[in-house]
Structures are given as structure tokens and as C-alpha cells.
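Can anyone check this?
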Amino acid sequence: MKQGFFIILLFMVILLVAGIFNDKFLLSIYLLLLLLLLMGGYFITSNGMFDFLNANFIFHISYLLAFFIAPIGIFIPKVSNVYLIYENQFTILSIAILWSIFGLLFYYLGFLSNTGTLLSKKIPMMELKVSPKILRLIVVCFTVFAIIAYYLLMQKLGGVMYVIFHLGVIRGLRILAFGGVGYLTIWLDFLVIISFILHIWSIKNHKKSKLIWVHSLIVLLLIGFCGSRMLILRYILGILIIYNYSYKKLNFKQILYFALCFLILSQTYVAFRYDFRSFKDWITSFDKILTSIFGDISAIRVFARVLQEVPSRYPYLIGKTYLDALINLLYLPFPRTIFKDKPIILSIGDYVGKTFFPEYPVGLPPTILGEAYLNFSYAGIFFEMFLFGIFCKFLTSLSRRYKEKGSVYVIILALFIPDIFVTVIAAPSIAFSTLSLNFVLLLIVLSFITILESLFSRRFNG
């Protein structure tokens, strides 16, 4: 571990020395300061202990990717074109990194306050209790329905084989799903929650069944056809969190293997997703792979553009993106086919992409700092990072208190902790919608289990 930190630090020193001789000097200085602050801050907030799957660690990894690793791409000639900044790109990126340092300081203030710990102590213990028959019934019913729904949707898109060999069409599948075709993605969230319950139940009852992993593979394939690597990452990370807190702690080497495997698989997935025929060209082209990796995490470019143009060209939104996320969530139960006057509200990514990047009109989320600044200027960065520090401390304290096998809170951690990555690299309003929906769906599943247990119990006693 110490050797790894030394190598990173040495790399930054080399980068700093190289920056002295050109206009990248200031950016190099700020990147070095950010790295030192991240390393020192994590050591302080974790009390020198390394728990590689708690909320605080995931936050630091996400912040490192978004505000340290991503800007390094600007130093790479073949990658720098993905940053899409108008002019003075090194100056505006330097300002963005400077504000990421300030934001990190306020995160630490929130995390080190006692608020998150006090809130976690007010949460009562909840154990997961479900009989094998009920669990089997729920797993079979939900999974079979999802497979049928996917099959019908694939037929609508041109057939199963067409979708498999033209995987670019899965973007259409995702659009159709979000457009209300059976609310397929919500059903997929149900499947993910049930899969988590299945894994916890197997750990609690010391049951090792191949069927559990077969079900997990089915869920993973269905997620894959939704066209989002983020959904895949959230699901796999959720399972790792469950085993980390319910069975056996994972060490750094295991987490590193997982990260490398996911990086390789995700880039392979990109190659298939865009054009099956170009798979070989994609895999053998290092430039394409490198550009894709930095393109995925370079939301810093969006934050930099927002800093550059708000409020000089565009006004502050004064909370509009958060309110829109709430309105979208409230309207979710009402399909547009029934409620024709349902408002069309752009997500934060769509709004930012169309407004700030008209030459590149796709969804581009602005990072946690970008959305805070877009709504409430620099005060928003301070306030939001302080609150997020409290939230991460709450989840960290919760994970330390509820490590007993079968706890419902392990499922909550498996649902919430992966979305820290979404919050930091994408936007809090996106993560808020996902977290709120998943929490409601979890309550529905647990209520459904309770009702079925009660009905079966009455029938047995009768």
C-alpha cells in the first residue's frame, strides 16, 4: 500500500517538474495539492484503517477519478480532444481543480462532525426474515416476468438475434424502457433488490447454491441489455458490499482485481455496444480505449465549462435541477399513456449537454460540484459538500453498527454506497432519484414478503 502511494506521489512530482516549463504549471500544482489532501484526508477520516467498501472509501475513489485522474488526460495529446473546453483550457481547469480542493475541505468538515454518527444511532435494528418457500416464489415470479418482458421488447426492436449482433440498438432498448414500455427498468431494480436478499439469505442460512449465482448471472445479462455500464457496476459492487459486511471482509488485492477486471470488461462492453463488427478494431486500438476511459470519467470538463459560462452567459438555476428530479420522481407512478399531460422534464445531464455543449448534444452530467455551482454558485459547493460529508459519515457509521448477518441495513448499504460514485462523477439529483426509488422498491419488496409470510402462516395454522 505504501509503495503504491509513493509511486503515485512520484508520478505527480514528475508531472510538476514537467509543468514548470509550460503553461500547465498551475494545473500541476493544484493536482498535486488535491492528491496530498485526498491521501491525508482519507487517513484522518478513516482513523488510519482501510475499509475498501465503505462510503468514505468509495467517495475518495470517486473524487480521485473525477478531479485528479480525469484532468491528467489534458496532458495526453491523443486524449485531450475529449475535454471540449472553448479557450484558456488549462486556466479554467486549474480553477475547477482549485474549487474541488475547497469542496473536499467542506466534505471533511461534514464528515468529521458528529451529526452523521448521531443520525445512525437513531436507526433501529431490522433483521431480514423470510422462509425458503416465500423467497423461492418471489424470485421465480419476478425473474420469469422480467425475462418475458425483455423478450417482448427485443421482438419489438427486431428480434433477439438482431439485438445480440447489433448491440448499438440496446441504447434504443434503454430509451424505450425509460419511455414507459412496461417500466422495464423499475422491474429490473426489483430484480436487483431480490438478488441482494437472496445473497444475504444464503449467507445467513449457510446455504451455498449454484442457483443463486445462476440467478445473479441472469440479472447481470438483463442489466447488460439496458446499455449502461453504471448499472452493471452498481449491481456487482452491491454484491461485493453484501459479502464484505455479511460474510468476510475483502482485502485490497481482491478489490484491485475486481477494478481491473471491470475496466477490461467495461471497455469490451463499449466495443460491443456501439458496433459488433468494429469489436476487433476497437480492442486493438489503444488510442480508442484510452480516449474512451478518459471520456467516461472526464466530467471535470463539464464542471469547467459551467464555471466558465455561469453566470456570464447563463443564470443560476436556484435549485431547479433538484426540484425537477423530485417532480420526475413524483410523476413516475403515472405512465404517459394514461396521464397524457405528464410534463416532460429534462434531466440535469440532458440540460447541461444541450445548453453548454450544443456542438456535442448528448447528456453530460456536471459532477457534484458542477450541479451545486449551477444552482447556488460557490455557496452551493460549500453547503452541498458539507451535507454530503454528513451523509457519507452516516452510511459509514451504519456499516460499523450493523454487521450482523441478515440485517436489512446491509441491503441499504448495497443500494446506497454504489450511488456515491454516481453522485460525485454525475450529479446528486440523478443519485437522489435512484436512491429514493430503490428505497421505496425495497419497502415494497419487504412488505410483500411480510404479507406472503402472514398468508402462508394463516393457511398452515388453519
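Reply from J.R.: I decoded it. The radius of gyration is 23 Å.
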